[in-house]
Write a structure and sequence with these properties.
Blueprint: E1 5-12, E2 23-29, H1 32-41, H2 46-54, E3 59-67, H3 73-88, H4 94-101, H5 109-121, H6 127-134, H7 138-149, E4 154-157, E5 162-165, H8 182-194, H9 200-205, H10 208-216
Antiparallel strand pairs: 1-2, 1-3, 4-5
Helix pairs in contact: 1-2, 5-7, 6-7
């Protein structure tokens, strides 16, 4: 069956609450129908625990919006969360209960699964590009990738701060893990120009040779940022 990407709504319709006190959860999914199944069998998230506690028959699942572009999911999810927050208030959204009561940095299971799949297809992928794609901190991407390194014959070398081969102790020739996107390089270089403080780890990844080459050629740094692939 073809996967359907989009935004979904889980609505609490029974249990201890009256019909006037419904609760809502809005999420994103690469496979909407499989995602509902995951919520019913997993206990990773606050909404999962509520479904287990009150019973699946006290919740409904509805698709709010579909999309063919995976990169749009986070933006669409934020749009729908804000819409429901405006309509019903923060206290009726399980999303905000989860954020405030459990762990504000928790990454959605669906997003974790998608990132793991990307690394299983190609462990050499850029952690920064993935972070940009899913709009999450790059350090969270590192955590997801970490257990997959050794399976691919790799490890993180704390001395050189590089991922290296277990066999050769060298960075793999096709490694792109520390490669920034053009958008990120542009942002960094603009910030350097304006004297804005940004993530120092990202600055170290933005090759200063790029900065020097640009200025030596009489161009502002961000004018040649798009050349970085």
């Amino acid at each position: 069956m073809k996967q359907v990407k989009g935004i979904y709504l889980i609505e609490r319709i029974g249990g201890d609450y009256s019909i006037d006190n419904k609760r809502f959860y809005i999420g994103l999914a690469i496979d909407l129908f499989d995602r509902w199944h995951q919520h019913c069998v997993n206990t990773d998230q606050y909404i999962d625990k509520m479904i287990r506690k009150y019973g699946v028959t006290n919740f409904t699942f509805r698709i709010l919006e579909t999309t063919s572009a995976q990169r749009n999911l986070k933006e669409l999810e934020s749009k729908w969360i804000n819409e429901y927050k405006a309509l019903y208030g923060e206290e009726l959204l399980y999303n905000l209960s989860e954020t405030s009561n459990i762990n504000p940095t928790r990454i959605d299971t669906e997003v974790k699964d998608a990132i793991e799949k990307l690394f299983m297809e190609d462990i050499a992928r850029s952690i920064y590009a993935i972070a940009e794609r899913f709009t999450i901190p790059w350090k969270e991407v590192v955590k997801i990738r970490m257990p997959l390194l050794r399976k691919n014959g790799l490890k993180y070398d704390r001395t050189t701060k590089n991922v290296v081969s277990l066999a050769t102790k060298q960075v793999p020739l096709d490694w792109r893990g520390a490669q920034l996107t053009s958008k990120q390089v542009s942002t960094i270089l603009k910030s350097i120009e304006k004297g804005i403080d940004i993530d120092k780890d990202l600055v170290s990844k933005a090759d200063l040779e790029i900065y020097l080459t640009c200025t030596d050629n009489g161009r502002l740094p961000y004018e040649c940022a798009a050349e970085i692939k």
